[in-house]
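Quick one:
INPUT:
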């Protein structure tokens, strides 16, 4: 298996293990925009893989009803698979405290969120 295949396998394994914790945090962050709309992804259905920039993550967290917020909701429901780099995660860790009034997360919740996203 090549390095890309190994990375994909590692991402899938980590994704399965952390799905519950990630889902809880993402549902907390995007509860306003999700409402009762839930998309069911059928087994074997291809999932779109995307790399989200810090601006999309921050906007999605701060403004759940926005387009980035809908992308976060799609991620939470498994409609898209999000890939993040350590650079994006570091910037997210630095920028999230500035938006505390929008998302209401404590510093420890911010650390937990970024830690979960880094897996």
């Amino acid at each position: 298996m090549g390095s890309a295949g190994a990375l994909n396998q590692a991402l899938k394994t980590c994704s399965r293990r952390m799905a519950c914790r990630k889902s809880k945090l993402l549902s907390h962050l995007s509860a306003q925009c999700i409402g009762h709309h839930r998309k069911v992804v059928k087994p074997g259905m291809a999932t779109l893989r995307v790399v989200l920039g810090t601006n999309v993550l921050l906007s999605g967290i701060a403004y759940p009803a926005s387009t980035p917020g809908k992308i976060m909701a799609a991620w939470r429901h498994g409609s898209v698979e999000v890939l993040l780099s350590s650079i994006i995660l570091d910037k997210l860790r630095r920028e999230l405290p500035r938006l505390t009034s929008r998302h209401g997360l404590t510093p420890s919740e911010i650390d937990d969120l970024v830690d979960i996203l880094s897996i």
